[in-house]
Amino acid sequence: MDICGAIAGRRFARRQVVTAAMDHVDFIAPIELGDIVTVTGYVFDTGVTSMDVRVDVRAERPQHGETSETATSFFTFIALDESETPTAVLALRCPTTTETDLRDRALEARRSRRRELAHEFEEPTDGKGRASR
User: Fold this and answer.
1) Which residues, in sequence order, are CB contacts of 68 under 8 Å at separation 6+?
2) What is the per-residue pLDDT across 93-127, written as a single tens digit (0 to 9) for each?
3) DSSP states along 31-46
4) How many other C-beta atoms are found inside a 10 Å radius of the C-beta of residue 97?
5) pTM score > 0.70 for this model?
6) Burial (CB count <10 Å: 0-12, 13-18, 19+), residue 128
7) Is the residue at 70 inside a domain?
8) Which pLDDT score is estimated for 120?
9) Which domain holds residue 104?
10) Count of other CB atoms within 10 angstroms of residue 64
């Protein structure tokens, strides 16, 4: 998944990139022996030197004509110049409605997943706002 994300980042930045962060990987379904695996990634947001990339993994079972989502994650990559120093990237442009929708879905999916993870790690309270541990 990291390699796929790096390829997407490198294509976008047109220069070397390095992984800065990887969000939680959501494992959705197993990949069975004999499945054909497809890994796709795309840049959905940019910062000054960073690119956020969504990576999805799908498995195809050709004998059954089935395809299913198996995993997804979000990565942040930093563009590097020739001296391996962070360097600016272009702002992401979404000239088509399809690209805008893809970006918006990725932004919302990441926000939603971060809220879910934050909620999982919240400390339980006794109902009066005090920690119950």
Assistant:
1) 28, 29, 58, 59, 61
2) 999 999 999 999 999 999 998 888 888 877 665 55
3) --TTPEEEEEEEEEEE
4) 8
5) yes
6) exposed
7) yes
8) 80
9) 2-120
10) 7
The CATH number that applies at residue 30 is 3.10.129.10
Place of tokens 């089935």: 66
Which residues in the chain land under pLDDT 70? 123-133
Domain count, the chain: 1
The pLDDT assigned to 77 comes to: 98
Please indicate, yes or no, if residue 89 is contained in any of the structural domains.
yes
pLDDT of residue 108: 95
d(CA 40, CA 21): 18
Is residue 25 within 8 Å of 1, Cβ to Cβ? yes
What are the structure tokens assigned to 81, written together? 């110049």
Written as six digits, the tokens of 124 are: 């339980």
In a domain, 33, yes or no: yes
Residue 87 lies in a domain: yes
Measured CA angle at 38 (ends 32, 44), to 5 deg: 130
